[in-house]
UniProtKB/TrEMBL annotation:
<dbReference type="GO" id="GO:0006508">
    <property type="term" value="P:proteolysis"/>
</dbReference>
<keyword id="KW-1188">Viral release from host cell</keyword>
<dbReference type="Pfam" id="PF04586">
    <property type="entry name" value="Peptidase_S78"/>
</dbReference>
<protein>
    <submittedName>
        <fullName>Phage prohead protease, HK97 family</fullName>
    </submittedName>
</protein>
<dbReference type="InterPro" id="IPR054613">
    <property type="entry name" value="Peptidase_S78_dom"/>
</dbReference>
<dbReference type="GO" id="GO:0008233">
    <property type="term" value="F:peptidase activity"/>
</dbReference>
<keyword id="KW-0378">Hydrolase</keyword>
<feature type="domain" description="Prohead serine protease">
    <location>
        <begin position="117"/>
        <end position="186"/>
    </location>
</feature>
<keyword id="KW-0645">Protease</keyword>
Length: 209
């Protein structure tokens, strides 16, 4: 955990959660924290997954849209492979977890460990370093809508499609299909129940994602 107070890292608070909690209590009035407090949770590529926006309803670089309500995930959830740049000729570099399609298609990407796949692990390390943060979906089209030439910002909309795979890549068709590098929590208010654990407090009232 990394803690910043008014934009400056406080190493003592980062190491000692009880000291940090004491600071929050001392600087909280009527549920509001006086200082600007930011909490960053570090990510270990070998242990933790990376949350990813896999596809959105935005017009992509091919002047197409993919309807997030039209995703068929049934088969993908059985075999949730993550590839490098849609390359079917090499083994998957990881898997996707918690995949869902609501306002957008999103999920958590877990890369292979270094012990079994040094290449897949190295892609994860690049993601961890912020060098790679884009992704792209591979899918089979089931239903397609062509748009009238008047007043349109795209040529067609994929209305129903089956997700086959998700790939990490350098330049995606959809520029909004990206990984969020860090989960940032901004402290806004504190709840006082002593029976709650420190992280329960963060999750239930100390922090706003």
């Amino acid at each position: 955990m990394l803690v910043k107070i008014d934009g400056v890292e406080n190493k003592e608070f980062s190491k000692n959660k009880n000291l940090f909690l004491s600071f929050l209590k001392d600087n909280t009035h009527s549920g509001k924290v006086a200082a600007q407090v930011e909490v960053f949770k570090g990510v270990d590529v070998q242990k933790d997954s990376f949350h990813w926006v896999m596809s959105t309803f935005d017009t992509d670089r091919d002047f197409e849209k993919v309807d997030p309500c039209g995703w068929d995930l049934k088969n993908y959830l059985i075999n949730p492979v993550v590839l490098w740049s849609h390359d079917y000729s090499i083994p998957a570099i990881g898997i996707a977890q918690n995949v869902k399609a609501e306002k957008q298609l999103e999920g958590d990407i877990l890369f292979n460990s270094k012990e079994i796949d040094e290449f897949g692990w190295s892609i994860g390390e690049r993601v961890k370093a912020g060098v790679l943060r884009c992704g792209s979906v591979g899918f089979r089209v089931d239903e397609l809508e062509f748009l009238d030439a008047k007043d349109r910002d795209c040529d067609c909309i994929f209305r129903k499609q089956e997700l086959l795979e998700f790939s990490i890549c350098c330049v995606p068709a959809n520029p909004f299909a990206i990984h969020v590098p860090q989960k940032r929590l901004e402290i806004t208010e504190v709840i006082q129940e002593e029976e709650l654990s420190y992280w329960d407090k963060l999750g239930k009232g100390l922090a706003r994602a």
